[in-house]
Predict the 3D structure of the following.
Amino acid sequence: MKQLFCVLLALATMVAGTNCSKAEKSDESVVGHTISAFPVGHALYTTGNRQYVAFYDSLHQMTLAQRTLPDGAWRYFTLDEKIKWDSHNYITMCMDDRGVMHLSGNIHASPLVYFHTDTSGNIETFHRATPMVGENEQRTTYPHFMKLDDGRF
């Protein structure tokens, strides 16, 4: 029997001018279900009154959730990306200064998996976008998006 766990979100506020994974806890919300067979990191991004979560659902599909703070209903969008059994394959997500969301994950010594939105802040416009920079993308591990202190992506 498979055990399912809820993705329990510690609501957070991103600290401006830092990397895209630093957050401060402010509240909690159940986002969805994820499989518990192996640990893997999920991503959270909060900007203004919008909050985004990227996680692997109970069927191992990379899934995005979006809501309006403080207590809006979650909207979901599933990407065409499925994790196998590797705890290294965490998800990372960030928004650039134009409002475009960038997401990468499910990578461990494998070709780059990269998605971005076409419409600012709209998870339903996420699509696969490789190559990202055009070189050195065939064997990647541990993706991470960063912003400089001046806010540049």
The two ends are 43 Å apart (CA to CA). The longest strand covers residues 23-35. Residues 1-18 have pLDDT under 50 and may be disordered. The CA atoms of residues 3 and 122 lie 31 Å apart.
